[in-house]
């Protein structure tokens, strides 16, 4: 669960470039076939997604988003935003297991 403010902070998936080898730019040599633009951009090595870097505050499980404080399970159980920790949902009327 993520609040409205943190939606723009979500990580982006890296996908291959959709250009084909018949493109005029590739024939000139200025572009590569299958180049991943998120990885090849200058300055992205320091901001690269590292999936096992962060740990959850409660259960110490690895989180799936950059800069996340809580894993998806703990954030859902408590009704918190997984990135900033702000209360998003009131979970008092719900019956949730403690497992």
UniProtKB/TrEMBL annotation:
<dbReference type="GO" id="GO:0008380">
    <property type="term" value="P:RNA splicing"/>
</dbReference>
<dbReference type="GO" id="GO:0005737">
    <property type="term" value="C:cytoplasm"/>
</dbReference>
<dbReference type="GO" id="GO:0005681">
    <property type="term" value="C:spliceosomal complex"/>
</dbReference>
<keyword id="KW-0747">Spliceosome</keyword>
<comment type="similarity">
    <text>Belongs to the CRIPT family.</text>
</comment>
<dbReference type="GO" id="GO:0031122">
    <property type="term" value="P:cytoplasmic microtubule organization"/>
</dbReference>
<dbReference type="Pfam" id="PF10235">
    <property type="entry name" value="Cript"/>
</dbReference>
<keyword id="KW-0507">mRNA processing</keyword>
<protein>
    <recommendedName>
        <fullName>Cysteine-rich PDZ-binding protein</fullName>
    </recommendedName>
</protein>
<keyword id="KW-0508">mRNA splicing</keyword>
<dbReference type="GO" id="GO:0006397">
    <property type="term" value="P:mRNA processing"/>
</dbReference>
<keyword id="KW-0963">Cytoplasm</keyword>
<dbReference type="InterPro" id="IPR019367">
    <property type="entry name" value="PDZ-binding_CRIPT"/>
</dbReference>
<dbReference type="GO" id="GO:0008017">
    <property type="term" value="F:microtubule binding"/>
</dbReference>
């Amino acid at each position: 669960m993520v609040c409205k403010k943190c939606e723009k902070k979500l990580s982006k998936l890296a996908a291959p470039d959709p250009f084909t080898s018949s493109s005029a730019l590739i024939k000139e040599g200025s572009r590569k076939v299958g180049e991943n633009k998120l990885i090849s951009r200058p300055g992205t090595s320091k901001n690269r997604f590292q999936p096992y870097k962060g740990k959850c505050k409660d259960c110490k499980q690895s989180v799936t988003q950059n800069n996340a404080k809580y894993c998806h399970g703990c954030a859902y159980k408590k009704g918190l935003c997984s990135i900033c920790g702000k209360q998003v949902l009131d979970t008092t009327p719900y019956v949730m297991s403690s497992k």
